[in-house]
Design a protein that fits this description.
The protein is mainly alpha-helical and 71 residues long. The protein has one domain. The chain contains 3 helices and 2 strands, in the order αββαα. Strands 1-2 form a two-stranded antiparallel ribbon. Strand 1 and strand 2 form a beta hairpin. Helix 2 packs across helix 3.
Length: 71
């Protein structure tokens, strides 16, 4: 979880909301943490899955807020 929170600081933000965490940032984090290559591959998959879930949650939250503002 701490790695995900740290990596969230690497995502680009725009008017439409947060973008995905760059793959390069995830791999660099894994390298700096000293993860073995086989562990790094799993780490990348887990972080990307967490990121996809976060972006889906954020999109739903943003849509609900837009609908609330329209009323």
């Amino acid at each position: 979880m701490m790695a995900f929170f740290d990596l969230c600081t690497c995502r680009a933000l725009s008017e439409s909301g947060p973008g995905p965490i760059p793959w390069t940032a995830i791999v660099e984090y894994a390298d700096r943490a000293g993860l073995e290559l086989d562990v790094e591959a799993g780490f990348v998959r887990v972080i990307r899955a967490m990121d996809a879930a976060y972006l889906e949650w954020y999109a739903k939250k943003a849509e609900a807020m837009r609908k609330k503002e329209i009323k």
